Amino acid sequence: MDHIDLDHVLTVLGAAAWGTDEQSRARVSSALALTVYDGHTRDQGTPYLEHPLAVVMILRTEIRVSHPETLRLALLHDALEVAPSSESLLVQHLGAPFTGRLRAMTADHRLEQRPKAADDETRWRFKQAALPPEELVVRLTDRLHNLRDLAASPSLHRRGRFLRSLKDFYLPLAGAARGLSPHLAAVHALLHAEYVRHQQEVRQ
Predict the structure, then answer these.
(1) CA of 185: how far to CAs of 37, 53, 69, 122, in Å?
(2) Distance between CA atoms of 77 and 59, rounded to whole angstroms?
(3) What is the DSSP letter of 44?
(4) What letter does residue 46 receive in the DSSP assignment?
(5) Which string of DSSP letters, residue by residue, matches 116-184?
(6) Model pTM greater than 0.90?
(7) Is 76 exposed, middle or buried, given 0-12, 13-18 or 19+ CB atoms closer than 10 A?
(8) pLDDT digits over 128-171, tens only?
(9) Beta bridge partners of 128
(10) Listed residue (33, 28, 69, 61) closest to 49, CA to CA
């Protein structure tokens, strides 16, 4: 992907179709995303910001989410994971309630800036299962993009871990939540399709 600038982020959000106040919030959120994710890369070596932008695009084009705040949550969903120290900056510019929603979408060991402990995976699953529908659809879409991106990951361990958690946790969670909204129903169908695709690849 070419250099990502403010205009590109706003275009991915679809902010041109929003009202004046939402456009203003979109500009602030986009500038923060550029700042917070700057210098961070994924294990594939790609700029980290490409991932949340991909999540936003899936939400808009495949799951048909148009609510500005949900899309801004998606843009910043990993901000506190990659840069926990940015929390005060996020509170200053986006407010405590919005930042609190991001905290609820972030694993505790990331927020506490410590190594992952034995019980952290269980705690993280409970935390995700307790998310409200808007936050949950973002987190499930995040997982969907991670699954689609596995082919680019150099880590075989990561691939196996993600596919096991899809079967054991994310598909059941999405299935239990799909009746809560059309968006959750849509992301459940997409996760199921991803599961089927990977199962077919294993059999080949």
Answers:
(1) 30, 22, 20, 24
(2) 13
(3) T
(4) S
(5) PPTTHHHHHHHHHHT--HHHHHHHHHHHHHHHHTGGG-S-HHHHHHHHHHIIIIIHHHHHHHTTS-HHH
(6) yes
(7) buried
(8) 999 999 999 999 999 999 999 887 666 667 778 888 999 999 99
(9) none
(10) 33
Cα distances (angstroms) measured from residue 30 to each of 20, 41, 71, 72, 76:
15, 18, 11, 8, 9
Cβ atoms of 77 and 102 within 8 Å: the answer is: yes
Contacts of 160 (CB under 8 A, 6+ apart): none
| Residue 160 identity | G
Q: Nearest-5° angle of CA 128, CA 97, CA 180?
A: 40
Q: Would you mind telling me the total number of residues written for the chain in this entry?
A: 204
pLDDT digits (tens, 9 = 90+) for 32-42: 999 999 999 98
- C-alpha 191/C-alpha 168 separation (Å) is 13
Give the H or E element holding residue 197: helix 182-203
Name which of 80, 90, 136 is nearest 112 in CA terms.
Answer: 80
Which residues does 80 contact at the CB level (< 8 Å), separation at least 6?
Answer: 86, 87, 90, 102, 103, 106, 110, 111
